[in-house]
Amino acid sequence: MDTVAYVDLERFMGDWYVVASIPTFIEKGAHNAVESYALNPDGTIATTFRFNKDGFDGPVKTYRPTGFVMDRKTNALWGMQFIWPIKGDYRIIYLNDDYQLTVIGRAKRDYVWVMSREPDFRNEEFERIKDFIQDVGYDPSKLRRVPQRYGKNE
Q: Lower CB density within 10 Å: C or N end of the chain?
């Protein structure tokens, strides 16, 4: 699975709303999902993934994996470590020019995440992204919108 040609890590850092996904088991029922990145001095990426479980008023779940840039030429291939020593496949396969929309995929094509700098995600954009993930080998019928309200679990 191809990644984007290059990611400016400084521009990529910050908050991203997870607006659609083929979710992992921990994400099922997620509302107001936000993934935040911060570049550590050692080059790793401090990651915070938080969401409300099973509803907007559900309990807040927070995970703090560490990202490891595996390809320094593109900065688009990472290992995401939730549990040592396993680093999950994390590939930036789409990133628009203004760093407002990204798609994260995996070579196995089992999970995918569509993230935006804003919590609003238009239906036209959702349909376009479904076409994109189908073109890279995913089953678009598995893609689910992540309910977003107020943003950042307010």
A: C
User: What average pLDDT does range 71-93 have in this prediction?
Assistant: 87
Give the containing element (helix H, strand E) for 133: helix 123-135
Q: Which fold has domain 9-145?
A: Lipocalin (2.40.128)
The CA distance from 29 to 8, in Å, is 32
Question: What are the pLDDT digits (tens) for 85-119?
Answer: 667 889 999 999 999 999 999 999 999 999 999 99
Distance CA 133, CA 130 (A): 5
CA-CA distances (angstroms) from residue 89 to 53, 72, 73, 107, 111? 24, 15, 17, 7, 10
What does the alpha-carbon distance between residue 52 and residue 60 come to, in Å, rounded to a whole number? 4
Nearest to residue 36, comparing CAs of 50, 21, 53, 52?
A: 50
H/E segment holding residue 132: helix 123-135
Paired tokens of 87: 């680093």
CA distances from 139 to 23, 43, 90, 104, 143 (A): 13, 34, 18, 15, 8
Q: Give CA–CA dist 22/52, Å, rounded.
A: 17
Domain ranges of the chain: 9-145
